[in-house]
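Box 3.1. Reading complex inputs
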Amino acid sequence: MGWNFNDSSPIYQQLCGILKSRIASGQYAPGEKLPPVRDLALEAGVNPNTVQRAYAELERDQLVNADRTSGRFVTADGEKIKTLRAILSSGYIEELFERLHGLGLSDEEIRAAVNEWGYLK
Amino acid sequence: MTTLKCEGLTKNYGPVKALDSIDLSVESGRIVGLLGPNGSGKTTLIKIASRLLVPSAGRIEICGKAPSAETKAEVAYLPDRDYLPGWMKVSELIGMYADFFKDFDRERAERMTASLGLDGNMLLRKLSKGNKEKVQLILTMSRRAKLYLLDEPIAGVDPAARDYILDTILSNYDEEATVLISTHLISDVEKVLDEAIFLKQGKVVLHKPVDDVRQETGMSLDGYFREVFRC
């Protein structure tokens, strides 16, 4: 996933979302060192304070541990990453249901459609 | 620490109030967008802060001091037009900046112009518009100033050159320094800004963190600007 930001929500929140996806998917592996604030700011083309704020939020969620001298690391706690993956997944599923409800499908029809899509794949 | 502070700052050009009793306070370590339509007072404010103009009324302080020779040494100003002699070579311009400014990092400037693929022997006037703007920015950002005043640094260059310029700003400003960028190309700069200041007919109509604007309005800064300044 690249660093694309939409127009409708704060950038630090979007940055946080991208970082969470990367942690959940293992692109940032458990225990891996995260890029320093400045490097990530340059890579994503955003303000360093925005990166700082996103990192602080990940620390609050205990997905990232800060070490005063050596930087920030992805949590090595597999359970936390599993929980994160579950939270992100249910978000996507909720969105799927919302959109399909919008098209007039019932819960039952959505489940059937998902199953069928799975078979077709 | 407060880098830039204005109290009741006013500038009249004859009957025209270019700045109308502005109160502002900008902290260090921030990148701030000075945004407003043409004629809203952006350049006037920047020129007062860089001591090229004197206010008609009110006060302005740079790092707690009134503009003076001393503050000039702490302020790096990039004007909104070509201001360097075209007959000079890139290497001569770097030498001139090194002579003029104690805080100029010559090695950094040389490295950055080299990474642009520019030969130091090239004359400034032989450069493309994009490269000319880049050289002017490199000279400005190679100073270790406390306040950078960048007047329209990305106007008139292509999107790739804009990205280069924004990267140069992000990678070169000191964490204790403040960068004030005036522009009307808001969508290009909003991701790098901490705060936005909207100027309208010489008055500050908004001064907020960019993410607060997005949070409160559900719009990008660019979208909100278009709404505030709809003609």
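In summary: The beta strands of chain A are 64-67, 71-74.
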